[in-house]
Amino acid sequence: MSILYIMRHGEAAPGTPDSERSLTEHGEQEARAMGAWLSEVLTDDVRHALRIVASPYRRAQQTARLVAAPLGLSVETLPIITPDEPLEPVIDWLQQQVPQTPCLLVSHMPLVGALVGRLVEGDVRASQPMPTASVAALEAEVWAAGCATLRQWQSPRDLSS
């Protein structure tokens, strides 16, 4: 079984171009909270093997770095996970690059919601609501439509309650 964590970036300020939008102070707090949560819940084996990949957009890169810091990990950039990219190349990448390696993918809506929906439900119209900095933990033997199980869903909002 392979584990995939799909995360939406933290809250971002408005602006243009979209690719240069930065996290707000609240968005930074959300990302730090999720990094602390992951450092608590990940086993040592998963933490040491975890691969963190992020969209090239500024807010996703900032989120990924803040999450990676308490884990002592680095961040890779994956150009095919910007907001409106098609899912098929992402699923192909998962099949080739993440067959047995745990991975945290940091991206944007609508891509993250659609990816969770497709992997879990298999329907091209399925989508999971993903508030800022939320994480969906999926498990699968193969990364394909309808083949994953949603094991956990965590929002930074739920950590403070």
Name the features.
6 helices, globular, 19% strand, six-stranded mixed β-sheet, 39% helix, alpha/beta, 161 residues, Rossmann fold, single chain
Write up this protein.
By secondary structure, the protein is α/β, with parallel strands linked by helices. It has a single domain, classed as Rossmann fold, CATH 3.40.50.1240. It has six helices and six strands. Strands 3-2-4-1-5-6 form a six-stranded mixed β-sheet, with helices on both faces. The longest helix is centred in the first third of the chain and has 17 residues, at 25-41. It comes from Chromohalobacter israelensis (strain ATCC BAA-138 / DSM 3043 / CIP 106854 / NCIMB 13768 / 1H11). Residues 11-30 are annotated as: Disordered.
Provide a short characterization of the protein structure.
By secondary structure, the protein is α/β, with parallel strands linked by helices. 39% of the residues lie in helices and 19% in strands.
**Overall pLDDT metric:** 95
CATH superfamily: Phosphoglycerate mutase-like
CATH topology: Rossmann fold
What count of domains describes the coordinates?
1
Q: Order of strands side by side in the largest beta sheet?
A: 3-2-4-1-5-6
Major β-sheet, in short?
Answer: 6 strands, mixed
Which band does the percent of strand residues land in?
Answer: 15-25%
Alpha-carbon Rg, integer? 14 Å
Q: Supply the CATH architecture.
A: 3-Layer(aba) Sandwich
Pick out the low-confidence regions. none
The helix/strand order is: EHHEHEHEHEEH
Distance separating the two termini: 32 Å
Percent range of helical residues: 25-40%
GO cellular component, one term: cytoplasm
Region (Disordered): 11-30
Pfam families: His_Phos_1
Keywords: Hydrolase
